[in-house]
Description:
It is a single chain. This protein has helices spanning 29-44, 136-148; strands at residues 49-51, 61-66, 78-90, 95-102, 105-115, 117-123, 129-135, 164-166. It is an alpha+beta fold and 178 residues long. The strands form two sheets. A five-stranded antiparallel beta sheet has the order 1-2-3-6-7, sandwiched between helices. Strands 4-5-8 form a three-stranded antiparallel beta sheet.
Amino acid sequence: MSVRKILRMGDPLLRQVSEPVTEDEIQTKEFKKLLKDMFDTMRHAEGVGLAAPQIGILKQIVVVGSEDNERYPGTPDVPDRVILNPIITPLTSESSGFWEGCLSVPGMRGYVERPNRIRMQWMDEKGNKFDETIDGYKAVVYQHECDHLLGVLYVDRLKDTKLFGFNDTLDSGGKILD
């Protein structure tokens, strides 16, 4: 198990745009080790997803996967998946709000509204290309993680800065405790 350091908000690498992954890169041992390290790091931190910029790698790589995540009780499982060079297109102007957290903004949550139905095109770690319509919680997770590839953090998308706070100050529904 190889757990990498997760960069925190304020690190300038988190605000840079990542480069696409080439098909030649995915053939290397270094790339395969990086993916394993990303999954190890995500699970160790009890995350639902992790983007390569969060560990200082400016490449368009996202890993997701979660079952019964204690940080987000009552949310559906997210199957393990490697997402390379994603393109996200909103399919509706309707949005859903969710109390998001981030491994790069530890101990805090904020209310973010995102399109609740998206089209996502990407490549996996074997070079297979995908084109799917995704909705609900999974759409939130994918949009959140893919934002990192553009140098965007969820705090940039807060609905209202009053709907942002420390986990131990918010109730289980995300509302600020009195």
